[in-house]
Protein backbone atom coordinates (compact mmCIF):
# COMPACT_ATOMS: atom_id res chain seq x y z
CA UNK A 1 0.00 0.00 0.00
CA UNK A 2 1.34 3.45 -0.92
CA UNK A 3 0.15 6.67 0.68
CA UNK A 4 0.72 9.57 -1.72
CA UNK A 5 -0.04 12.28 0.82
CA UNK A 6 2.62 11.28 3.34
CA UNK A 7 4.94 9.48 0.90
CA UNK A 8 4.80 6.37 3.07
CA UNK A 9 5.02 2.86 1.78
CA UNK A 10 4.11 -0.01 4.08
CA UNK A 11 1.89 -3.02 4.44
CA UNK A 12 -0.72 -2.45 7.20
CA UNK A 13 -1.20 -6.21 7.50
CA UNK A 14 2.27 -6.61 8.96
CA UNK A 15 1.39 -4.44 11.95
CA UNK A 16 0.11 -5.72 15.25
CA UNK A 17 -2.43 -3.07 16.15
CA UNK A 18 -2.58 -4.16 19.76
CA UNK A 19 -1.48 -1.15 21.88
CA UNK A 20 2.24 -1.39 22.53
CA UNK A 21 2.12 0.62 25.75
CA UNK A 22 0.56 -2.25 27.70
CA UNK A 23 2.86 -3.06 30.59
CA UNK A 24 3.29 -6.74 29.70
CA UNK A 25 6.81 -6.97 31.04
CA UNK A 26 5.76 -5.82 34.43
CA UNK A 27 2.80 -8.18 34.60
CA UNK A 28 5.27 -11.04 34.46
CA UNK A 29 7.44 -9.46 37.15
CA UNK A 30 4.41 -8.86 39.38
CA UNK A 31 3.66 -12.58 39.46
CA UNK A 32 7.15 -13.18 40.71
CA UNK A 33 6.74 -10.52 43.43
CA UNK A 34 3.54 -12.18 44.68
CA UNK A 35 5.59 -15.14 45.76
CA UNK A 36 7.62 -13.01 48.17
CA UNK A 37 6.87 -12.72 51.84
CA UNK A 38 3.95 -10.61 53.00
CA UNK A 39 6.32 -8.13 54.62
CA UNK A 40 7.63 -7.04 51.22
CA UNK A 41 4.31 -6.75 49.38
CA UNK A 42 3.84 -3.06 50.12
CA UNK A 43 7.42 -2.33 49.17
CA UNK A 44 7.01 -4.25 45.91
CA UNK A 45 3.86 -2.27 45.16
CA UNK A 46 5.80 0.92 45.73
CA UNK A 47 8.52 -0.25 43.35
CA UNK A 48 5.85 -1.08 40.76
CA UNK A 49 4.42 2.43 40.91
CA UNK A 50 7.83 4.04 40.56
CA UNK A 51 8.93 1.76 37.74
CA UNK A 52 5.73 2.11 35.74
CA UNK A 53 5.78 5.88 36.04
CA UNK A 54 9.42 6.04 35.00
CA UNK A 55 9.02 3.93 31.86
CA UNK A 56 5.51 4.60 30.65
CA UNK A 57 4.91 8.25 31.45
CA UNK A 58 5.35 9.51 27.90
CA UNK A 59 3.58 8.91 24.62
CA UNK A 60 6.66 9.15 22.43
CA UNK A 61 6.65 6.11 20.10
CA UNK A 62 9.60 3.76 20.10
CA UNK A 63 9.15 2.28 16.61
CA UNK A 64 7.76 3.22 13.21
CA UNK A 65 4.84 0.86 13.76
CA UNK A 66 3.86 2.70 16.92
CA UNK A 67 3.68 6.01 15.04
CA UNK A 68 1.07 4.51 12.72
CA UNK A 69 -1.30 3.80 15.62
CA UNK A 70 -0.42 6.93 17.58
CA UNK A 71 -3.01 9.71 18.08
CA UNK A 72 -0.32 12.04 16.69
CA UNK A 73 0.25 9.93 13.57
CA UNK A 74 -0.01 12.88 11.18
CA UNK A 75 2.56 14.86 13.15
CA UNK A 76 5.02 11.98 13.21
CA UNK A 77 4.49 11.29 9.49
CA UNK A 78 5.12 14.94 8.73
CA UNK A 79 8.31 14.91 10.82
CA UNK A 80 9.60 11.78 9.05
CA UNK A 81 8.79 13.18 5.60
CA UNK A 82 10.65 16.36 6.54
CA UNK A 83 13.71 14.34 7.56
CA UNK A 84 13.69 12.31 4.34
CA UNK A 85 13.34 15.47 2.26
CA UNK A 86 16.34 16.99 4.05
CA UNK A 87 18.42 13.90 3.30
CA UNK A 88 17.43 13.98 -0.36
CA UNK A 89 18.39 17.65 -0.59
CA UNK A 90 21.77 16.94 1.02
CA UNK A 91 22.31 13.91 -1.26
CA UNK A 92 23.05 11.72 1.74
CA UNK A 93 22.78 8.49 -0.27
CA UNK A 94 22.11 6.96 -3.63
CA UNK A 95 20.50 3.58 -4.28
CA UNK A 96 22.52 0.62 -5.54
CA UNK A 97 21.82 -3.06 -6.01
CA UNK A 98 23.12 -5.15 -3.12
CA UNK A 99 26.04 -7.51 -3.68
CA UNK A 100 27.07 -10.57 -1.75
CA UNK A 101 30.26 -8.95 -0.39
CA UNK A 102 28.48 -5.84 0.95
CA UNK A 103 28.17 -5.21 4.68
CA UNK A 104 24.71 -3.63 4.90
CA UNK A 105 23.78 -1.82 8.11
CA UNK A 106 20.24 -1.59 9.37
CA UNK A 107 18.54 1.65 10.38
CA UNK A 108 15.63 2.76 12.52
CA UNK A 109 13.59 5.84 13.33
CA UNK A 110 14.10 7.66 16.62
CA UNK A 111 11.37 10.02 17.81
CA UNK A 112 11.28 12.87 20.27
CA UNK A 113 9.22 15.90 21.22
CA UNK A 114 11.25 19.08 21.68
CA UNK A 115 10.20 21.73 24.18
CA UNK A 116 11.11 25.38 24.66
CA UNK A 117 12.33 27.00 27.88
CA UNK A 118 8.74 27.23 29.14
CA UNK A 119 8.10 23.51 28.57
CA UNK A 120 5.77 24.20 25.63
CA UNK A 121 5.88 21.75 22.72
CA UNK A 122 8.25 23.19 20.13
CA UNK A 123 8.17 20.49 17.46
CA UNK A 124 7.89 16.79 16.76
CA UNK A 125 11.26 15.42 15.78
CA UNK A 126 11.99 12.26 13.77
CA UNK A 127 15.54 11.19 13.10
CA UNK A 128 16.84 8.35 10.95
CA UNK A 129 19.66 6.53 12.74
CA UNK A 130 22.01 3.92 11.31
CA UNK A 131 22.85 0.84 13.36
CA UNK A 132 26.46 1.84 13.87
CA UNK A 133 26.98 -0.85 16.51
CA UNK A 134 27.35 -3.28 13.59
CA UNK A 135 30.29 -1.36 12.12
CA UNK A 136 33.68 -3.08 12.11
CA UNK A 137 36.60 -1.14 13.64
CA UNK A 138 39.40 -0.58 11.15
CA UNK A 139 37.14 -1.55 8.25
CA UNK A 140 34.06 0.68 8.43
CA UNK A 141 35.68 3.41 10.56
CA UNK A 142 39.02 4.44 12.02
CA UNK A 143 39.23 7.74 13.94
CA UNK A 144 36.10 8.81 15.80
CA UNK A 145 37.15 11.63 18.15
CA UNK A 146 35.24 14.91 17.88
CA UNK A 147 35.84 17.79 20.33
CA UNK A 148 33.03 19.33 22.36
CA UNK A 149 33.15 22.58 24.28
CA UNK A 150 32.52 22.10 27.99
CA UNK A 151 29.44 23.80 29.36
CA UNK A 152 31.60 25.47 32.01
CA UNK A 153 33.51 27.17 29.18
CA UNK A 154 30.22 28.42 27.71
CA UNK A 155 29.35 29.84 31.12
CA UNK A 156 32.83 31.30 31.55
CA UNK A 157 32.87 33.05 28.17
CA UNK A 158 29.28 34.24 28.55
CA UNK A 159 30.32 36.03 31.75
CA UNK A 160 33.47 37.42 30.12
CA UNK A 161 32.03 38.51 26.77
CA UNK A 162 28.43 39.45 27.61
CA UNK A 163 28.42 40.41 31.28
CA UNK A 164 31.84 42.11 31.49
CA UNK A 165 32.61 43.32 27.95
CA UNK A 166 29.03 43.87 26.79
CA UNK A 167 29.32 41.91 23.54
CA UNK A 168 26.27 40.93 21.51
CA UNK A 169 25.45 37.26 21.06
CA UNK A 170 23.08 34.91 19.27
CA UNK A 171 22.34 31.20 19.52
CA UNK A 172 22.01 29.30 16.26
CA UNK A 173 21.05 25.71 15.51
CA UNK A 174 22.49 23.84 12.53
CA UNK A 175 19.82 21.82 10.80
CA UNK A 176 20.89 18.21 10.19
CA UNK A 177 24.48 18.95 11.21
CA UNK A 178 25.85 15.42 10.80
CA UNK A 179 24.53 15.28 7.24
CA UNK A 180 27.21 17.78 6.20
CA UNK A 181 30.06 15.38 6.93
CA UNK A 182 31.67 13.54 4.02
CA UNK A 183 32.44 9.83 4.32
CA UNK A 184 35.83 8.55 3.18
CA UNK A 185 34.86 4.87 3.59
CA UNK A 186 32.00 3.26 1.61
CA UNK A 187 29.09 2.34 3.89
CA UNK A 188 25.83 0.67 2.88
CA UNK A 189 22.54 0.88 4.73
CA UNK A 190 19.02 -0.47 4.32
CA UNK A 191 16.31 1.88 3.08
CA UNK A 192 14.38 3.58 5.91
CA UNK A 193 11.22 1.84 7.07
CA UNK A 194 8.12 3.34 5.48
CA UNK A 195 10.11 5.16 2.80
CA UNK A 196 11.39 2.44 0.48
CA UNK A 197 11.39 3.66 -3.13
CA UNK A 198 8.58 2.00 -5.04
CA UNK A 199 9.91 -0.60 -7.46
CA UNK A 200 13.37 -0.55 -5.82
CA UNK A 201 12.53 -2.08 -2.47
CA UNK A 202 15.46 -4.53 -2.64
CA UNK A 203 18.03 -1.77 -3.30
CA UNK A 204 20.30 -0.48 -0.51
CA UNK A 205 21.55 3.01 0.31
CA UNK A 206 25.18 3.82 -0.46
CA UNK A 207 25.97 6.61 1.99
CA UNK A 208 27.74 9.68 0.64
CA UNK A 209 27.38 11.74 3.82
CA UNK A 210 27.69 10.86 7.49
CA UNK A 211 24.42 9.96 9.16
CA UNK A 212 23.35 9.77 12.78
CA UNK A 213 24.40 6.53 14.44
CA UNK A 214 27.70 5.98 12.63
CA UNK A 215 30.82 5.95 14.79
CA UNK A 216 32.63 8.54 12.67
CA UNK A 217 29.72 10.94 12.07
CA UNK A 218 30.62 13.37 14.84
CA UNK A 219 34.20 13.59 13.65
CA UNK A 220 33.25 14.08 10.00
CA UNK A 221 30.87 16.90 10.91
CA UNK A 222 33.54 18.56 13.05
CA UNK A 223 36.08 18.37 10.22
CA UNK A 224 33.58 19.97 7.84
CA UNK A 225 32.75 22.71 10.36
CA UNK A 226 36.44 23.41 10.99
CA UNK A 227 37.04 23.80 7.26
CA UNK A 228 34.08 26.19 6.95
CA UNK A 229 35.28 28.19 9.96
CA UNK A 230 38.79 28.54 8.55
CA UNK A 231 37.28 29.79 5.30
CA UNK A 232 35.41 32.48 7.24
CA UNK A 233 38.59 33.66 8.97
CA UNK A 234 38.18 31.86 12.30
CA UNK A 235 40.99 30.03 14.09
CA UNK A 236 40.48 27.03 16.35
CA UNK A 237 41.65 27.55 19.92
CA UNK A 238 44.44 25.15 20.87
CA UNK A 239 43.30 24.87 24.48
CA UNK A 240 39.61 24.43 23.69
CA UNK A 241 38.89 22.87 20.30
CA UNK A 242 35.22 23.82 20.42
CA UNK A 243 36.15 27.52 20.44
CA UNK A 244 36.76 29.43 17.20
CA UNK A 245 37.80 33.07 17.22
CA UNK A 246 38.85 36.03 15.10
CA UNK A 247 39.38 39.69 15.88
CA UNK A 248 35.76 40.70 16.46
CA UNK A 249 33.88 37.42 16.77
CA UNK A 250 33.94 34.16 18.76
CA UNK A 251 32.11 30.88 18.10
CA UNK A 252 31.36 28.22 20.72
CA UNK A 253 30.33 24.88 19.22
CA UNK A 254 28.56 21.98 20.92
CA UNK A 255 27.64 19.55 18.09
CA UNK A 256 24.87 21.44 16.25
CA UNK A 257 24.40 24.21 18.84
CA UNK A 258 26.53 27.28 18.15
CA UNK A 259 26.72 30.49 20.16
CA UNK A 260 28.09 33.49 18.24
CA UNK A 261 29.61 36.41 20.19
CA UNK A 262 30.55 39.70 18.55
CA UNK A 263 31.60 43.19 19.64
CA UNK A 264 28.82 44.97 17.73
CA UNK A 265 25.38 44.06 16.42
CA UNK A 266 26.45 44.74 12.84
CA UNK A 267 29.45 42.40 13.16
CA UNK A 268 27.18 39.77 14.69
CA UNK A 269 24.66 39.97 11.85
CA UNK A 270 27.44 39.92 9.27
CA UNK A 271 29.03 36.81 10.81
CA UNK A 272 25.69 34.97 10.95
CA UNK A 273 24.98 35.94 7.33
CA UNK A 274 28.30 34.40 6.22
CA UNK A 275 27.56 31.23 8.18
CA UNK A 276 24.13 31.03 6.52
CA UNK A 277 25.78 30.88 3.12
CA UNK A 278 27.63 27.73 4.14
CA UNK A 279 25.16 26.05 6.51
CA UNK A 280 21.40 25.76 6.90
CA UNK A 281 20.79 27.31 10.31
CA UNK A 282 18.00 28.57 12.53
CA UNK A 283 18.55 31.80 14.46
CA UNK A 284 17.27 31.48 18.03
CA UNK A 285 18.22 34.95 19.27
CA UNK A 286 20.03 35.65 22.56
CA UNK A 287 20.70 32.56 24.65
CA UNK A 288 17.65 31.65 26.73
CA UNK A 289 17.79 27.87 26.91
CA UNK A 290 20.95 26.01 25.99
CA UNK A 291 21.90 22.38 26.67
CA UNK A 292 19.26 21.96 29.36
CA UNK A 293 20.11 25.21 31.16
CA UNK A 294 18.05 28.40 31.40
CA UNK A 295 19.62 31.83 30.92
CA UNK A 296 16.85 33.98 32.36
CA UNK A 297 16.90 37.74 31.89
CA UNK A 298 15.52 39.65 34.88
CA UNK A 299 16.07 43.40 34.73
CA UNK A 300 19.69 44.10 33.85
CA UNK A 301 20.93 40.69 34.96
CA UNK A 302 21.03 37.17 33.58
CA UNK A 303 20.36 34.29 35.98
CA UNK A 304 21.42 30.73 35.33
CA UNK A 305 19.21 27.87 36.52
CA UNK A 306 17.58 24.63 35.31
CA UNK A 307 13.95 25.09 36.27
CA UNK A 308 12.72 23.87 32.88
CA UNK A 309 14.59 20.60 33.33
CA UNK A 310 13.58 20.30 36.99
CA UNK A 311 9.91 20.76 36.09
CA UNK A 312 10.27 17.85 33.67
CA UNK A 313 11.60 15.76 36.54
CA UNK A 314 8.53 16.66 38.58
CA UNK A 315 6.41 15.05 35.88
CA UNK A 316 8.80 12.19 35.27
CA UNK A 317 8.94 11.18 38.93
CA UNK A 318 5.49 12.38 39.94
CA UNK A 319 4.74 9.19 41.93
CA UNK A 320 7.60 9.78 44.35
CA UNK A 321 6.66 11.01 47.84
CA UNK A 322 7.19 14.73 48.43
CA UNK A 323 8.77 16.17 51.56
CA UNK A 324 9.98 19.58 52.65
CA UNK A 325 13.75 19.02 52.68
CA UNK A 326 16.10 21.86 53.63
CA UNK A 327 19.47 20.09 53.35
CA UNK A 328 20.67 17.80 50.54
CA UNK A 329 22.45 15.52 53.02
CA UNK A 330 22.17 15.65 56.80
CA UNK A 331 25.17 15.74 59.11
CA UNK A 332 25.71 12.30 60.62
CA UNK A 333 23.71 10.55 57.91
CA UNK A 334 24.70 6.89 58.10
CA UNK A 335 25.09 5.20 54.73
CA UNK A 336 25.06 1.39 54.57
CA UNK A 337 27.96 -0.30 52.84
CA UNK A 338 27.49 -1.10 49.19
CA UNK A 339 25.78 -4.48 48.98
CA UNK A 340 27.00 -7.29 46.80
CA UNK A 341 24.77 -9.04 44.31
CA UNK A 342 22.48 -11.69 45.79
CA UNK A 343 23.65 -10.79 49.29
CA UNK A 344 20.28 -9.35 50.33
CA UNK A 345 16.83 -10.55 49.32
CA UNK A 346 15.74 -7.04 48.36
CA UNK A 347 18.56 -6.69 45.80
CA UNK A 348 16.47 -8.21 42.99
CA UNK A 349 13.59 -5.92 43.88
CA UNK A 350 15.82 -2.85 43.99
CA UNK A 351 17.05 -3.46 40.45
CA UNK A 352 13.66 -2.31 39.24
CA UNK A 353 13.91 1.08 40.94
CA UNK A 354 15.39 3.76 38.62
CA UNK A 355 18.24 4.56 41.02
CA UNK A 356 20.86 5.09 38.31
CA UNK A 357 18.42 7.11 36.22
CA UNK A 358 17.70 9.49 39.09
CA UNK A 359 21.39 9.76 39.98
CA UNK A 360 22.10 10.67 36.34
CA UNK A 361 19.41 13.37 36.38
CA UNK A 362 20.72 14.83 39.64
CA UNK A 363 24.33 14.71 38.39
CA UNK A 364 23.29 16.71 35.33
CA UNK A 365 21.81 19.39 37.59
CA UNK A 366 24.71 19.33 40.06
CA UNK A 367 27.36 19.72 37.37
CA UNK A 368 25.71 22.62 35.54
CA UNK A 369 23.83 24.86 37.94
CA UNK A 370 23.59 23.48 41.49
CA UNK A 371 26.90 23.07 43.32
CA UNK A 372 24.96 22.81 46.59
CA UNK A 373 23.99 19.20 45.77
CA UNK A 374 27.34 18.18 44.25
CA UNK A 375 28.67 16.42 47.36
CA UNK A 376 25.40 14.61 48.10
CA UNK A 377 25.05 13.37 44.51
CA UNK A 378 28.70 12.33 44.32
CA UNK A 379 28.33 10.39 47.56
CA UNK A 380 25.18 8.55 46.48
CA UNK A 381 26.54 7.81 43.00
CA UNK A 382 29.13 5.54 44.62
CA UNK A 383 26.34 3.04 45.39
CA UNK A 384 25.02 2.65 41.83
CA UNK A 385 26.19 -0.96 41.64
CA UNK A 386 25.05 -1.95 45.12
CA UNK A 387 22.28 0.17 46.58
CA UNK A 388 19.61 -0.65 49.13
CA UNK A 389 16.21 0.81 49.84
CA UNK A 390 17.85 3.11 52.38
CA UNK A 391 20.12 4.57 49.67
CA UNK A 392 17.10 5.09 47.40
CA UNK A 393 15.21 7.12 50.00
CA UNK A 394 18.23 9.39 50.51
CA UNK A 395 18.40 10.03 46.76
CA UNK A 396 14.68 10.88 46.82
CA UNK A 397 15.49 13.33 49.63
CA UNK A 398 18.01 15.06 47.37
CA UNK A 399 15.44 15.30 44.58
CA UNK A 400 12.90 16.83 46.97
CA UNK A 401 15.53 19.31 48.13
CA UNK A 402 16.01 20.39 44.50
CA UNK A 403 12.23 20.76 44.07
CA UNK A 404 12.03 22.88 47.23
CA UNK A 405 14.89 25.20 46.22
CA UNK A 406 14.13 25.93 42.59
CA UNK A 407 14.51 29.65 43.30
CA UNK A 408 18.29 29.21 43.71
CA UNK A 409 19.81 30.94 40.69
CA UNK A 410 23.33 32.05 39.80
CA UNK A 411 23.65 35.73 38.90
CA UNK A 412 26.02 35.88 35.91
CA UNK A 413 26.31 39.67 36.13
CA UNK A 414 27.78 39.62 39.64
CA UNK A 415 31.25 40.56 38.37
CA UNK A 416 32.85 43.21 40.56
CA UNK A 417 36.32 42.10 39.47
CA UNK A 418 37.83 40.00 36.71
CA UNK A 419 40.04 37.73 38.77
CA UNK A 420 39.90 33.95 38.88
CA UNK A 421 39.62 32.70 42.46
CA UNK A 422 39.75 29.04 43.44
CA UNK A 423 38.89 27.48 46.81
CA UNK A 424 40.23 24.00 47.55
CA UNK A 425 39.42 21.61 50.38
CA UNK A 426 39.42 17.94 51.31
CA UNK A 427 37.96 15.64 53.94
CA UNK A 428 40.58 13.12 55.06
CA UNK A 429 39.57 9.47 55.34
CA UNK A 430 35.87 10.31 55.44
CA UNK A 431 34.80 7.08 53.71
CA UNK A 432 34.62 4.62 56.58
CA UNK A 433 34.34 1.56 54.35
CA UNK A 434 37.56 2.16 52.38
CA UNK A 435 39.09 5.29 53.99
CA UNK A 436 39.31 7.25 50.75
CA UNK A 437 39.24 11.02 51.14
CA UNK A 438 37.02 13.48 49.27
CA UNK A 439 38.32 16.42 47.23
CA UNK A 440 36.35 19.55 46.54
CA UNK A 441 36.96 22.82 44.74
CA UNK A 442 34.98 25.76 43.39
CA UNK A 443 36.25 28.49 41.05
CA UNK A 444 34.78 31.99 40.85
CA UNK A 445 35.18 34.52 38.06
CA UNK A 446 34.52 37.74 39.90
CA UNK A 447 31.75 36.52 42.21
CA UNK A 448 30.23 34.11 39.69
CA UNK A 449 30.71 30.35 40.31
CA UNK A 450 32.07 28.92 37.06
CA UNK A 451 33.14 25.38 37.82
CA UNK A 452 33.13 23.10 40.86
CA UNK A 453 33.75 19.48 41.74
CA UNK A 454 33.23 17.04 44.57
CA UNK A 455 35.11 13.81 43.98
CA UNK A 456 36.28 10.74 45.84
CA UNK A 457 40.07 10.58 45.72
CA UNK A 458 41.46 7.64 43.75
CA UNK A 459 44.25 6.83 46.19
CA UNK A 460 44.25 6.55 49.97
CA UNK A 461 45.94 9.56 51.55
CA UNK A 462 48.23 8.71 54.46
CA UNK A 463 47.76 12.07 56.17
CA UNK A 464 45.44 15.06 56.13
CA UNK A 465 48.22 17.07 54.46
CA UNK A 466 48.42 14.57 51.62
CA UNK A 467 44.64 14.62 51.17
CA UNK A 468 44.68 18.42 51.03
CA UNK A 469 47.58 18.35 48.59
CA UNK A 470 45.78 15.94 46.25
CA UNK A 471 42.76 18.26 46.25
CA UNK A 472 45.07 21.23 45.74
CA UNK A 473 46.63 19.59 42.68
CA UNK A 474 43.25 19.08 41.01
CA UNK A 475 42.36 22.69 41.74
CA UNK A 476 45.60 23.92 40.19
CA UNK A 477 45.04 21.88 37.03
CA UNK A 478 41.61 23.45 36.63
CA UNK A 479 42.42 27.09 37.31
CA UNK A 480 45.57 27.04 35.16
CA UNK A 481 43.52 25.85 32.16
CA UNK A 482 41.02 28.70 32.51
CA UNK A 483 43.87 31.13 33.12
CA UNK A 484 45.57 30.12 29.86
CA UNK A 485 42.33 30.54 27.90
CA UNK A 486 41.92 34.01 29.39
CA UNK A 487 45.49 34.96 28.46
CA UNK A 488 45.19 33.57 24.94
CA UNK A 489 41.99 35.52 24.21
CA UNK A 490 43.68 38.68 25.56
CA UNK A 491 40.41 40.61 25.93
CA UNK A 492 40.89 42.00 29.46
CA UNK A 493 43.81 42.92 31.69
CA UNK A 494 45.06 39.64 33.10
CA UNK A 495 45.35 39.26 36.86
CA UNK A 496 47.18 36.35 38.46
CA UNK A 497 44.70 33.72 39.70
CA UNK A 498 44.33 33.16 43.44
CA UNK A 499 44.03 29.75 45.06
CA UNK A 500 42.95 29.39 48.68
CA UNK A 501 43.62 26.35 50.85
CA UNK A 502 42.87 25.83 54.55
CA UNK A 503 45.85 23.54 55.18
CA UNK A 504 49.03 25.30 56.27
CA UNK A 505 51.03 22.09 55.93
CA UNK A 506 49.87 21.52 52.32
CA UNK A 507 50.78 25.12 51.43
CA UNK A 508 54.17 24.78 53.14
CA UNK A 509 54.81 21.49 51.34
CA UNK A 510 53.89 23.07 47.98
CA UNK A 511 56.18 26.06 48.41
CA UNK A 512 59.21 24.38 49.93
CA UNK A 513 61.51 21.55 48.94
CA UNK A 514 60.53 19.11 51.69
CA UNK A 515 61.51 15.45 51.59
CA UNK A 516 60.98 13.07 54.49
CA UNK A 517 59.59 9.62 55.15
CA UNK A 518 56.01 10.89 55.21
CA UNK A 519 56.13 12.73 51.88
CA UNK A 520 58.71 10.97 49.71
CA UNK A 521 56.00 8.96 47.91
CA UNK A 522 54.41 12.21 46.67
CA UNK A 523 56.55 12.98 43.65
CA UNK A 524 55.16 14.06 40.28
CA UNK A 525 52.16 16.02 41.58
CA UNK A 526 54.38 17.82 44.07
CA UNK A 527 56.80 18.90 41.35
CA UNK A 528 53.93 19.97 39.08
CA UNK A 529 52.42 22.35 41.65
CA UNK A 530 55.82 23.60 42.81
CA UNK A 531 56.91 24.36 39.23
CA UNK A 532 53.78 26.42 38.55
CA UNK A 533 54.26 28.31 41.81
CA UNK A 534 57.89 28.99 40.89
CA UNK A 535 56.77 30.31 37.48
CA UNK A 536 54.21 32.55 39.23
CA UNK A 537 51.27 31.07 37.36
CA UNK A 538 49.07 31.50 40.43
CA UNK A 539 49.08 32.72 44.02
CA UNK A 540 48.62 30.20 46.83
CA UNK A 541 47.21 31.63 50.06
CA UNK A 542 45.86 30.34 53.34
CA UNK A 543 42.23 30.75 54.34
CA UNK A 544 40.53 29.81 57.59
CA UNK A 545 38.41 26.66 57.35
CA UNK A 546 35.32 28.59 58.43
CA UNK A 547 35.69 30.88 55.41
CA UNK A 548 36.66 28.21 52.88
CA UNK A 549 33.92 28.24 50.25
CA UNK A 550 34.76 24.67 49.14
CA UNK A 551 33.99 23.17 52.54
CA UNK A 552 30.46 22.13 51.53
CA UNK A 553 31.87 20.05 48.66
CA UNK A 554 33.70 17.63 50.96
CA UNK A 555 31.29 16.90 53.80
CA UNK A 556 27.72 17.52 55.00
CA UNK A 557 27.37 20.80 56.89
CA UNK A 558 25.00 21.92 59.61
CA UNK A 559 22.17 24.15 58.40
CA UNK A 560 23.63 27.47 59.56
CA UNK A 561 27.01 26.91 57.91
CA UNK A 562 25.43 25.46 54.77
CA UNK A 563 23.17 28.50 54.37
CA UNK A 564 26.12 30.85 54.77
CA UNK A 565 27.68 29.22 51.70
CA UNK A 566 24.39 29.32 49.79
CA UNK A 567 24.17 33.08 50.32
CA UNK A 568 27.50 33.51 48.53
CA UNK A 569 26.84 31.17 45.60
CA UNK A 570 23.20 31.96 44.88
CA UNK A 571 22.95 35.74 45.02
CA UNK A 572 19.67 37.54 45.63
CA UNK A 573 17.68 38.19 42.47
CA UNK A 574 14.59 39.97 41.23
CA UNK A 575 11.42 38.13 40.37
CA UNK A 576 9.59 38.66 37.09
CA UNK A 577 7.57 41.65 38.28
CA UNK A 578 10.73 43.43 39.37
CA UNK A 579 10.20 43.07 43.12
CA UNK A 580 13.31 42.09 45.00
CA UNK A 581 13.16 38.90 47.02
CA UNK A 582 15.28 36.33 48.81
CA UNK A 583 17.93 38.51 50.31
CA UNK A 584 20.17 36.71 52.78
CA UNK A 585 18.02 37.35 55.87
CA UNK A 586 14.79 36.39 54.13
CA UNK A 587 16.42 33.24 52.81
CA UNK A 588 17.50 32.06 56.24
CA UNK A 589 14.16 32.99 57.80
CA UNK A 590 12.19 31.17 55.08
CA UNK A 591 14.18 27.98 55.40
CA UNK A 592 14.00 28.05 59.18
CA UNK A 593 10.22 28.32 58.96
CA UNK A 594 10.06 25.26 56.70
CA UNK A 595 8.53 22.08 57.96
CA UNK A 596 11.09 20.30 60.11
CA UNK A 597 12.81 17.27 58.69
CA UNK A 598 11.05 13.98 59.25
CA UNK A 599 12.82 10.65 59.31
CA UNK A 600 12.43 9.85 55.63
CA UNK A 601 14.54 6.73 55.79
CA UNK A 602 11.91 4.44 57.22
CA UNK A 603 10.70 2.00 54.58
CA UNK A 604 7.26 1.53 56.10
CA UNK A 605 6.64 5.27 56.30
CA UNK A 606 7.74 5.88 52.73
CA UNK A 607 5.53 3.08 51.46
CA UNK A 608 2.55 4.56 53.28
CA UNK A 609 3.06 7.87 51.48
CA UNK A 610 2.58 6.39 48.00
UniProtKB/TrEMBL annotation:
Start and end residues of each Reverse transcriptase Ty1/copia-type domain: 91-318
InterPro entries tied to this protein: DNA/RNA_pol_sf, RVT_2
GO biological process, one term: DNA biosynthetic process
SUPFAM superfamilies noted in UniProt: DNA/RNA polymerases
Signal peptide location: none
Taxonomic superkingdom: Eukaryota
PANTHER family per record: GAG-POL-RELATED RETROTRANSPOSON (PTHR11439), INTEGRASE CATALYTIC DOMAIN-CONTAINING PROTEIN (PTHR11439:SF440)
Protein name: Retrovirus-related Pol polyprotein from transposon TNT 1-94
Organism, scientific name: Araneus ventricosus (Orbweaver spider)
Gene expressing this chain: POLX_581
Amino acid sequence: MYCERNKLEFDPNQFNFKPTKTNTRFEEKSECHNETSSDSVDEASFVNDIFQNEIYMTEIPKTFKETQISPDKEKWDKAMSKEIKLMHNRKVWDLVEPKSNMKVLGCRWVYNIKYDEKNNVKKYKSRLVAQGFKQRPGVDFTDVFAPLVKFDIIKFLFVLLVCILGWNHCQIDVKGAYLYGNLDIPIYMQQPEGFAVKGCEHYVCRLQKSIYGLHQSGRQWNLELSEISYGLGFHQNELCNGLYSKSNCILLVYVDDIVVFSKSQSDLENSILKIKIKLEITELGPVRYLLGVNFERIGNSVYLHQNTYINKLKTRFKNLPRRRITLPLKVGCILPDRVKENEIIETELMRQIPYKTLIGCLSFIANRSRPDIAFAVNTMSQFCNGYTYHHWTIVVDILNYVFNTMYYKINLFDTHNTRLTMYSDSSWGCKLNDRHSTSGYIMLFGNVPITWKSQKQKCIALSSMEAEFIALTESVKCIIWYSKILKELNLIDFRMPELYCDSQSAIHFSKNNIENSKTKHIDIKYKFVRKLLYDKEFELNYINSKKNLADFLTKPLVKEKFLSVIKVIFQKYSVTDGAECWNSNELVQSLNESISLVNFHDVAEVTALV
